Amino acid sequence: xxxxFRDRSSLxxxxxxxxxxxxxxxxxxxxxxxxxxxxxxxxxxxxxxSSTDLRDTAYEIxxxxxxxxxxxxxxYIPASNSDRLSNSPSLSSSPSQRSITSTAASKMKKAxxxxxxxxxxxxxxxxxxxxxxxxxxxxxxxxxxxxxxxRVTENNDSRIxxxxxxxxxxQVGKRLESMVLPLELLQQFxxxxxxxxxxxQSWQRRNLKVLEAGLLLHPYLPIExxxxxxxxxxxxxxxALDRPMxxxxxxxxxxxxxxxxxxLASRSSEGSLAESCxxxxxxxxxxxxxxxxxxxxxxxxxxTSILEEVDELMELIKKTWPILGLNQxxxxxxxxxxxxxxxxxxxxxxxxLLYAADSQLAEVSKDAxxxxxxxxxxxxxxxxxxxxxxxxxxxxAYHDTFDAGNIxxxxxxxxxxxxxxxxxxxxxSNEYRRRRKTEVDVxxxxxxxxxxxxxxTAFAQRMEQADSSRRAxxxxxxxxxxxxxxxxxxxxxxxxxxxxxxxxxxxxxxxAAGVAVATLHICYGNELKQFISSITELTPDAVxxxxxxxxxxxxxxxxxxxxxxxxxxxxxxxxxxxxxxxADTAIANMVKVWIKTRLDKVKEWIDRNLQQEVWNPRAxxxxxxxxxVEVLRIIDETLDAFFQLPIPSHPAxxxxxxxxxxRCLQYYITKAKSGCGSRNTYIPTxxxxxxxxxxxxxxxxxxxxDKPVHSQRRSSQSAVANGDxxxxxxxxxxxxxxxxxxxxxxxxxxxxxxxLLRNSESAHVEDFSNGxxxxxxxxxxxxxxxxxxxxxxVAYKIIFHDLSHVLWDRLYVGEPSSSRxxxxxxxxxxxxxxxxxxxxxxxxxxxxxxxxxxxxxxFLLVLLAGGPSRAFSRQDSQIIEDDFEALKELFWxxxxxxxTDVINKFSASVRDVLPLYRTDTESLVERFRQLTLETYxxxxxxxxxxxxxSGQWNPTEPNTLLRVLCYRNDEVASRFLKKTYNLPKKL
Length: 987
Fold this sequence. Notes:
Elements: H1 8-15, H2 24-30, H3 51-67, H4 107-112, H5 142-149, H6 154-170, H7 181-188, H8 197-217, H9 228-242, H10 252-265, H11 285-295, H12 310-317, H13 321-324, H14 328-345, H15 351-370, H16 374-395, H17 398-401, H18 410-428, H19 430-434, H20 442-472, H21 482-505, H22 512-533, H23 540-563, H24 572-576, H25 583-612, H26 626-643, H27 650-673, H28 679-682, H29 709-721, H30 729-758, H31 765-768, H32 779-802, H33 804-807, H34 822-838, H35 841-865, H36 877-892, H37 900-906, H38 908-913, H39 915-918, H40 921-936, H41 958-966, H42 971-981
Helix pairs in contact: 3-11, 7-8, 8-9, 9-10, 11-14, 14-15, 14-16, 15-18, 16-18, 18-20, 20-21, 20-22, 21-22, 21-23, 22-23, 25-26, 25-27, 26-27, 26-30, 27-30, 27-32, 30-32, 30-34, 32-35, 35-36, 40-41
């Protein structure tokens, strides 16, 4: 195998070729970086490996695989002796050494349907500098052709051969798969083997980056994070990339590198040492290298043509499979991508490449059915998704893609896209496998999608053209309306579709023309509906548009029927996709305009009357707002007016009217409750933890910069003092009554609608047999939500705003025994009396329960966050418990108030916290420590952290315990707080 590649003098004939005249773009594309190429489906390997790096590595693998494939010893022959040995019989045992003596058509090209080129790859130039023509003394070998195709210089090739001879001499009988080629090459050369130090360093860095890519970034087997060899190798590589390493055979750094590399490359899935080294067979590195080798099969002088010597080249390329971990299935898949990508990157001018790619996909489909290997499926999905994406970009708007000049390529692109889609769906999709395959026709579904998408795009373009024509003829007598022009254009588009595109698409979809005209029918119908909805009466223009639409409809239906005449249902399915352009539709749209106008007036009336509404409890003896009476009246009048319209479609249009009236009532409810606030409006901002008097040096230690409760209360009281009385407790109660009344009246209205519908001449039994479209859907829920919001708002307004002066400002201020809860209970009872007098009995219990909940919340807030004016001793616990019982008794009212279970439910938080005030301080401190340690773990052992304020008071919550301690008036609590948080000892 000494003359795998011939000498420099023989290859000089290759230098004088057309390759030097290739454009920069073609050269870049050949090396894998062409701007016209599609993004690689294999993804980015690493930003540090360039296309040239990958090409050089691929060539080294190729040469190594070919030189060791026969098992014969390697003998290095200097270039000066290559001519003398060129005819030696012993050198013809390898396919790479066989002379190329014939340009007969390739069997592979014939099988793929590719044309034969006028010449052969023998004319392909070398990668070296141009030289004068020299008459070749002998035929060239396949190996020489490959070197020229891969653009490898003679010097680099000679250096590779020398290294392989050295490697083989040192490892006789050892298979190439058991070696890591970049590692062996690194050990063979010194900087003196290269023309310049820079070239040597570049070569060394490239081999190290290949090791990084194959063993660390894209390994054959996943690497655990704890793997010491991987960490060591990464450090070595990164260090060597910055500073070249010594690579001598016995060099210590080289031995460390070898140990790390071999440890990673020899791993197996069973955990034992593998016989073969895995360094270039990890996805996607192996496929990217193999892609570069396959690209070398294309003639550099004719980028759209595969070399006639492809059979011999492919025989050699396949010898790299053991190193790259490939097989026939992955070869078929990768070769399909290379053929397809070459078609795209060369300007889509050679349809034979499309035929060949499609032919290869047929083999890929067979392979996909024969294996369920997850790695193969992942690669298959990446490549086919890229092919399908490119094809669909053109097929989803094929009217823009194809014309008379390139219509011949449409069939190939459709075939390719459908083939890719079928493999992706049928052989990869788990969902498809779970279903019966007879339920899914992948090819037909894809074509159906292409037709509909393309026709929609084409229709949009014709619509723009029709609009331009209408503007151009504006000053002419009797100009055609835009939709009439569009109808004519759509008819011509349908004819073109039937004559030009449908014959091709029928190969995959038997009713292609029918689907196309159905799509156009729908598109035009949508525009027609918009046109009719914009008019209030049938004008001459409207009549002209309707006549043009009627003619277009007949033409489209005729094409659909003719196309579907042989179908099982006689074309009924297609016709069902084409809703007729009926006059009833125009009438219905005009009625909808009427409905919208009436609804707008209703909304305007609501706004005007709500601005005048004062929500006075005395304005209506039943306690709800007069504006609600008017809302219900005008809705009733609107329903009467609707059923008096002379139309035949009351049942069909009633849901539109009901939906609009429903939204109007919802709007009224939303406006009625606006400005009243909610629970969060009145509940004060949670006070920060404090144990200091105002004016002391600690006063800002624990304070938050939130808006104080008193400032909120003063601002609200100021609004009332300035005459804004629409949000007082009685006024909010009237709003609640109003929402309750509206909810009760909805049932009356719905019964009246059924009566009006029964009396309508156009109604049928099925029209009023169900409630769909004849009921208010939004308003009932809006009423319930409004009552809930306002009930909570009025409750928390009473407790935290109106009664703040007897709760927040007075209760337990100073000495608890002299500032108890009696004043708060007296004023709270007055407010409850007001509620009982104003609120409707059906919602009265709910509001009282919300007031009770707010009162319990306020009571707790006083105890746990009442500020520096409050302090409690253990003896005060009985006072607090008695006051709490008095508060509950107010709502129980000797059995006439709220049920006991309701009171117990809402008072649970207070009931759980009160025992803390009876507990001795030492126990509280110990419990606080324990809970804090449980909450914060070991981080709290050195110093107890300050627990955040959650507002969810609970005896097992650290912040609750801390607040009890802060308000505990004894020396033990003061010392603990001073020592732990540096809080002042005195309150």
